Amino acid sequence: xxxxxxxxxxxxxxxxxxxxxxxxxxxxxxxxxxxxxxxxxxxxxxxxxxxxxxxxxxxxxxxxxxxxxxxxxxxxxxxxxxxxxxxxxxxxxxxxxxxxxxxxxxxxxxxxxxxxxxxxxxxxxxxxxxxxxxxxxxxxxxxxxxxxxxxxxxxxxxxxxxxxxxxxxxxxxxxxxxxxxxxxxxxxxxxxxxxxxxxxxxxxxxxxxxxxxxxxxxxxxxxxxxxxxxxxxxxxxxxxxxxxxxxxxxxxxxxxxxxxxxxxxxxxxxxxxxxxxxxxxxxxxxxxxxxxxxxxxxxxxxxxxxxxxxxxxxxxxxxxxxxxxxxxxxxxxxxxxxxxxxxxxxxxxxxxxxxxxxxxxxxxxxxxxxxxxxxxxxxxxxxxxxxxxxxxxxx
Length: 395
Ligand SMILES: NC(=O)c1ccc[n+]([C@@H]2O[C@H](COP(=O)([O-])OP(=O)(O)OC[C@H]3O[C@@H](n4cnc5c(N)ncnc54)[C@H](O)[C@@H]3O)[C@@H](O)[C@H]2O)c1
Description:
It contains 14 helices and 15 strands. It has about 400 residues and is of the alpha/beta class. The strands form 2 sheets. It has a 9-stranded mixed beta sheet. The model has no long low-confidence stretch (mean pLDDT about 95). Nicotinamide-adenine-dinucleotide (NAD) binds next to helix 1 and helix 5.
């Protein structure tokens, strides 16, 4: 979308140069012709220095430097949930446009506060529910919308979460990560979440059954106890014609669509530092290519964990061990961020972006799921009308 953008790049500040931002937002902002990255901010000196050296933006530990700089028109806030509401409110008050990472705050009340602030400032916060922008999910939605949307939806996310979720309490993933799924359930079905029933075998191994206000059932399986060699995400939707499946953002299959390709593949994110084989597998081999890449990266990590004292790793294994396959799937990070930057210049244009209200819906669904786990009962969301079972969908 973006290379045709002819207007002045947007002056941007990045707040939070942690694990996620350094792999995604920082290179995306640095490489995008839409962004003029002016500041990188992190409380941690080492992190901000590395981010500044990479991007040639100014580094600071004080967000006030960004708020006070009139050249900063927009900020990307990529700190953890407990700091998000405070920093987002400050940025809005300073007159900045905000791209806020999910989940949008530490609680539903945090998001209420931001909604009030957003209204007072007349500005729209853009939420990092960027999976809506992934090419594979966009294609799946196009196919589903041809025949009135999904009648039955299944989403699975199996993550090796304890690699990155250090510092989060057990069970936190429902709020900080399953929020993506609550958002996708609403986006794919075009309806609100009416009720949630949750069961779990152990913290962060959850199964949820949602019913949407248009009657569509949505099954979510979420586990933080997977491995890196297991495909992380799968979507399956059944509709009036047949169905659509999406494997790990790299492959979409359309069942019962005579005039559409049966299988479409989507390239992953091909970074310059990848081994040649990895880049080839990501280019166009779909699920099979990504599986090969996952396996090889996982095996290299196994070798690292099993190294005997004094033993060193072969250079090739060391290179593979650095790869995190989950970040090589195009989940829409760059296109969402670039659409945000475009929206700063063209606020009247319509983008399929999520906002704070969507974050609020996800936070309420997460709370309902936790209540259901505790009570063992279905929880009905208070702010939406009950489901209409088997509401007629257009043919
Ligand atoms: N959208 C996605 O697909 C996606 C994927 C992964 C993570 N995330 C989100 O990104 C956010 C960050 O996750 P992470 O894994 O990178 O966390 P992290 O802990 O690695 O990084 C957070 C960084 O923020 C810095 N920080 C905290 N308070 C600050 C402040 N007041 N001013 C400046 N810097 C501050 C910390 O020093 C740290 O470096 C989380 O909200 C997470 O949910 C989104």
